[in-house]
Amino acid sequence: MSPRRVPVSRRDRPAKPPLSRDGAVAVALRIMHEEGLERVTMRRLATELDTGPASLYVYVQNMAELHGAILDELLARLHLPPADADRWHDELVGLLCAYTRLLLDHPSLARSVLTLRPSGRHYLRLVDTILGLLRAGGVPIGQAAWGVDVLLQLGTATAAEHGTRGEVAGADDERQLFVMALREAPEPEHPNIAEARDDLFSGAGMQRLTWAFTALIAGVRSTATPVPEIAEG
């Protein structure tokens, strides 16, 4: 009687961990940090998770949703201050600058966010915090509701623009040509540029960003929203 053969597993690695949305987003974040957002594709993600791309769509419907989920994980790192009537303005500007700096580290994500409507829980907490800070500063609810959109848009667009300059070949050269044109614009033809010439190039990047948010907040605070239009018919 021949000895009984001991079955040998053909699997040369441990069992795969179960797929999940959180697991997919965690891997996507790792790839983005190591190689950039452009490398985060459904096919690459599926390879990393040892599954097929079709399986991922159960957890993430498309790339837009994945980018939104990545943003939401990054936003978890932001400190969200309480609505303090005495410090609301400084806290709000600081929060908006922190949001912008976060996206400056990931310009490709900033460009994607410009066309997204994020809806993750951390993004909703960010929106709620901004609204609370505006309300603490006495901003009427309607103006705060419209203002939160333009404030976040300024931060997102700023990060997307600065990141694009660094990634597009020749962008620095084009900017230098623009700067040179402003510096050398003849006064008789461009009197306003000549008068503002020194101020056009003053201020560091974060200083100008802080001013931009401060100016925009002042506008939101002082500008009433229009009466809603009544749809005809």
Helix content class? 55-70%
Give the terminus-to-terminus CA distance: 92 Å
Q: What Rg is obtained from the alpha carbons, in whole angstroms?
A: 25 Å
Sheet having the most strands = none
- What is the 3D shape? globular
Order of helices and strands: HHHHHHHHHHH
The overall strand count is 0
Provide a count of the helices: 11
**What portion of the residues fall into strands of 2 or more residues?**
under 5%
Structural class: mainly alpha
Mean pLDDT: 87
Segments where pLDDT lies below 50 for 5+ residues?
Answer: none
Q: Can you summarize this structure?
A:
The chain has 233 residues and is mainly alpha-helical.
